[in-house]
Design goal:
The protein has 341 residues and is of the alpha/beta class. The longest helix has 18 residues. The two termini are 15 Å apart. It binds magnesium ion (MG). The site of magnesium ion has 6 residues, from loops.
Length: 341
Amino acid sequence: MELSFIPYRIQCRHPFGIARSTHEYYDVVYVYLQENGFVGRGEAAPASRYSETIELVLSRLENCPTYFDDISNPESGLDKLVPFAGGMKSLEAAFSMAVFDIWTQKQKLPLYSYFGVEAAIAPVTSFTIAIGELDSIPEKIKEAEPYAILKIKLGTKNDKEIIDTVRDCTEKPVRVDANEGWDLQTAMEMCEWLSGKNIEFVEQPLPADQLDKTAILRSSSPIPIFADENCMTSQDIPTIAHAFHGINIKLMKCGCLLEAKRMIETARKHDLQIMLGCMVESSVGITAAAHLSPLVDYADLDGNLLIDNDPYTGVSVINGQIVLPKGNGLGVEVKNVSDLK
Ligand SMILES: [Mg+2]
């Protein structure tokens, strides 16, 4: 089985601002496994918050063999490939997607079937309004017309103005993501202020190293609190479960699709609600996550909707509802970018 890869720059439709950074583009890497006419595809979208960069991912891949023999099932493929990721979760995720994509194509199965999932019950996804100029919010809300739920990025000096502006435009349910941007007092005031404003939950209000303070917030907040930066893998769940009502699972944080499934099972045991989220990614990574989405309570799989040069097609969103592709494997296809597979 041949392994190859290519970097690609995805361009944001609008500058993507969160509490700690703003980006006009992100660099991702596509990883391919090829054998007997089949192509398995994966995507790594490294996040600097987790000390992963495009340079590190590429240097790992440049030192990876280009041929692997005797890959007879997904487990043996993962055993051979994952060590070359050097612990970088975004690259583990890309390897895992490519392995499962080519394996399930060969088995003539859509990926979700492998996980025992019914495609018919995929959830509704939220659509993110990132931090930017206040006067751009009405236009962004108009663009979000097809989506039933909005995710609003906060963690700024004018958070209340942002929410007031959103509420002047729409009554749709809103999820708030502070991306570690508040301190405890601000978070307690904001959660109180946000209650009654049709807010579903608040994601990662405090920095990840303030778990004790997050537990205090959880005990008083009228709105559920979800972990993102505090919850990377299934091993984190027992430690943080007391401080949150739910978790945000992302392939780029946990790596393998099997680990994402393990996180879902562990979170259920701890009575946590579950969202499946993403980085800003193209349709390869988003589609891989979408195959697991029928297993969770909430989806925030809009990374591919926030860019304007997605080179792949895969999962689609119809009236806000995630619709999984019909093909075998991931079900993604390259559009018209000649050097991609
Ligand atoms: Mg988040």
